Amino acid sequence: MRRVLALLLAEDGHTIVQAEGAQQALRFLSQEMFDVVLTDHRMPDGKGLDVIDACTDVSPYLPVIMITSFASIDLAVDAMRHGAFDFIAKPFEPDAVRAAVRRAIDHCKVQRENSLLRSEVHRIKSGGDEFLGTSAPIRCLREQIVRVAPTDTTVLILGETGTGKELVSRTIHAMSLRAQMPFIAVNCAAMPESLLESILFGHEKGAFTGANQAKQGLFEAAHGGSLFLDEIGEMPFALQAKLLRFFTNGEVLRVGAHTPRHVDVRLLLATNRNLEDMVKTGGFRQDLYYRIAVVPLTVPPLRDRRDDIPGLVEHFLRIVRTELNLPVRSITPSALAALQAYSFAGNVRELRNLIERAYILGSGDEITLEDLPIPQAAGEDGEAPASEPPEGEINLREYIDRTERTIVERTLRECAGNQSEAARRLCLSRSDMNYRVRKFGLHGVR
Question: Is 162 left (phi over 0), alpha (psi -120 to 50) or beta?
Answer without folding.
Answer: left
